[in-house]
Each structure stands twice: as structure tokens, then as C-alpha cells.
Design a protein that fits this description.
about 150 residues; mainly alpha
Length: about 150
């Protein structure tokens, strides 16, 4: 069975003028597995389809990098409890709700509309997980737990 590639819904927005199959073929041509660094190296070829997927203006690319670093900072902050148990899972300090910026989780819990929005985002993340791993039979038991 031949496998072909297309863009996801988000990919259709981000890469609307880029051929998904050609990009997939270029990444596959790197080797049995490709690192992000190897993909960037391949994309530096201005004649490649991959080249169209990247921001080559250094100032714009730096701004995008800093924004991602800000996301990383926020994502790494977790609530510290005074009497935390040894195996207690970490809970993020901030959550992005409805694309309105990062809000302290304690604030989100106090506002029903924000809490419901966070819950909807959690359901969407579960759906994304299901789509991503539905081909792994070993996870069928887990995926079946969620409607």
C-alpha cells in the first residue's frame, strides 16, 4: 500500500502554497529517520519545497524563536505545594484559555466560563491524541476510555 501525505487542517493554513507530498518525500529522502536539524539543513536548499516552510528572514525567525521560548518558559512552570506527595503529578501554573493569553490556573478555576473553555481544550487534546495514536493497537484500551 502506497502512503501519501497531505497537510492537516493547521498545515493547510500554514503551508497553503506548499505541496505536502513533495515535502514528505524530501524529508523521507534524508534517510531512515530525520532529525529536525537535518530537515532544516535540507530546507536551506532554495530549490526544495521544504524551503517554503521556513522563515528565512533572520529578524522574523528570531522573533518566532523568542515566542516559542516564552511558551517553553510558561509550560515549565508548575505549582509547588507545601505538602506535596512524592509521586504527585506536576500541575502547570498557567494555562492558555480561548487564545486569550496565559492565566494562572487558580484564576481559571474561579471562573466557570474559563474552566469550561479549559475543559473543552482538554477534550480537543484527547481527540488529537486519539488521531495521532489510533494506529497503535496497544493503546486501544486507553483510547476506548474516552468518548
Amino acid at each position: 500500500m502506497e502512503v501519501t501525505s497531505k497537510w492537516s487542517k493547521m498545515g493547510e493554513i500554514l503551508y497553503k502554497d506548499v505541496d505536502a507530498q513533495t515535502v514528505a518525500d524530501e524529508i523521507a529522502a534524508i534517510g531512515e529517520s530525520a532529525t529536525a536539524e537535518q530537515i532544516v539543513e535540507r530546507a536551506k536548499d532554495e530549490n526544495s519545497e521544504l524551503h517554503k516552510c521556513f522563515t528565512w528572514d533572520v529578524n522574523k525567525a528570531a522573533q518566532k524563536c523568542w515566542i516559542q521560548e516564552a511558551r517553553n518558559v510558561v509550560g515549565c512552570l508548575v505549582i509547588q505545594r507545601e505538602e506535596a506527595k512524592a509521586n504527585e503529578p506536576e500541575v502547570r501554573t498557567f494555562h492558555k484559555v480561548d487564545g486569550c493569553g496565559y492565566k494562572p490556573l487558580t484564576q481559571v478555576f474561579k471562573r466557570q466560563d474559563e474552566y469550561q473553555a479549559l475543559l473543552q481544550e482538554a477534550y480537543a487534546a484527547l481527540e488529537s491524541f486519539k488521531r495521532k495514536y489510533q494506529s497503535l493497537q496497544e493503546l486501544d484500551w486507553l483510547i476506548e476510555q474516552f468518548p
